[in-house]
Amino acid sequence: MTLRDTTLAITDLPLFAMLRTRMNWHQERQRLLAENVANADTPNFRPHDLAPLQMDRTQMQFASLTLERTEVGHIASSDGASGRFAMSRPGNYETRLTGNAVNIEDEMIKVAANQMDYQAATTLYTRSLGLIKAAIGKS
Amino acid sequence: MDFLKSIAIAASGLKAQAGRMRVIAENLANADSTAATPGAEPYRRKIVTFKSEVDRALEAQTVALGRIQTDPSDFRLRHEPGHPAADANGNVKYPNVNSLVEMTDLREAQRSYEANINIIGASRRMIQRTIEILKS
C-alpha cells in the first residue's frame, strides 16, 4: 500500500489523540468545577470531580470511552463528546450546616491546577505540530 | 464547546449571588423601617434560598435563587413612647434585622461571587490557549 492510498490525519497520530483526550478531560473537569463553585451555597449539594485520567493501552487504541451514570439524576449524553469520564466524589472534610460540602478554596486550587495542566497539554500540542511542520519543511 | 458551558454555569452562580446581595441590601436598608401605626408590623427580614437545577441545554447543574422567604423570628422591641408606632406600653417594634449578620452574609456572598468570577477567568484563559494552537 503506497502512501497515496492512505490518508493519515494529524489527529490520528497517537500523540495527538492522547493530547486531545487529555484536553477533553480538562474541559470536562472545568465544567464540573464550575458546577461545584456555582452551587457553593446550595443546600445539600455535594461536589463532584473527575477520576484521574489514565492512559493505558486499551484507551490508546482509541476505544471510545463510554458514559458512566453514577446517579439517577445524570443525563445521558447524546454523543461521546461530553460526560465520557468517570466521576469521582471525594470524601470531603468540611460539611456545613446546610449539608453543603463545597470548599471554595479547594475548588479554586483545582481550577488553577486544571488550567495549568490544560496549558501544558495545549503547549505540547503546539510543539508537536511544530515538529511535524519541521519534518515536512514548512516551519 | 464545553468551556462556554463552564462560563454559563459560573454566570448562573454570579446571578444567584447577586440576587442574594440584593436581598441583603434590602434588609440592611430597611434595618430601621418601623410601622407607621401602633398595630402594624415593621419590615420583616428576608432570606434567600438557593436551589440547584438541572439545565437540560447545558447538561449541567446550574444554580438559581429559590423562593425568597421571611424570617419568622421576633422583632426587636425598643422603648420609645413618643414614636407614632409605639404601643400602650410605649414599646416600638423594630425589624428583626441584625446588621452584623447581614454584613457577614454579604461577605460570604461576595466571596462566592469572586469564586465564580475566577472560574470565568480560568475558562476564558483555557479558551485562549485553545485558540493559540491555531496561531502556531
Largest β-sheet summary of chain A: 2 strands, antiparallel
**Contiguous runs where pLDDT drops below 50 for at least 5 residues of chain B:** none
**Average pLDDT, all residues of chain B:** 91
Structural class by secondary-structure content of chain A:
mainly alpha
Helix and strand element order of chain A: HEHEH
Number of strands of chain A: 2
Overall shape of chain A: elongated
Oligomeric state of shown chains: heterodimer
- Give the terminus-to-terminus CA distance of chain B: 21 Å
- What is the typical, i.e. mean, pLDDT of chain A? 78
Roughly how much helix do the residues of chain B carry, as a percent range?
40-55%
Order of SSEs of chain B: HEEEEEEH
Helical content class of chain A: 40-55%
3D shape of chain B: elongated
Distance between the terminal alpha carbons of chain A, to the nearest Å?
29 Å
* Broad structural category of chain B: alpha+beta
Uncertain parts of chain A: 78-82
Question: How many domains comprise the coordinates of chain B?
Answer: 1
Record the strand order, biggest sheet of chain B. 1-4
What does this structure look like?
The complex is a heterodimer of chains A (139) and B (136). Chain A has 139 residues and is an all-alpha fold. Chain A has one domain (12-71, 83-133). Chain A is built from 3 helices and 2 strands, in the order αβαβα. In chain A, helix 1 runs antiparallel to helix 3. The radius of gyration of chain A is 19 Å and the shape is elongated. In chain A, 25% of the residues are buried. Chain B is an alpha+beta fold and 136 residues long. Chain B has one domain. Chain B is built from 2 helices and 6 strands; from the N terminus they run αββββββα. In chain B, strand 2 (50-55) and strand 3 form a beta hairpin. In chain B, helix 1 packs antiparallel against helix 2 (99-135). The mean pLDDT of chain B is 91. The A-B interface holds A 23-24, 26-28, 30-31, 33-35, 37-43, 45, 73, 75, 77, 81-83, 104, 107-108, 111-112, 114-115, 118-119, 122-123, 125-126, 129-130 and B 2-3, 5-7, 9-10, 12-13, 16-17, 20, 49-52, 54, 56, 59-63, 108, 111-112, 115-116, 118-119, 122-123, 125-126, 129-130, 132-133, 136.
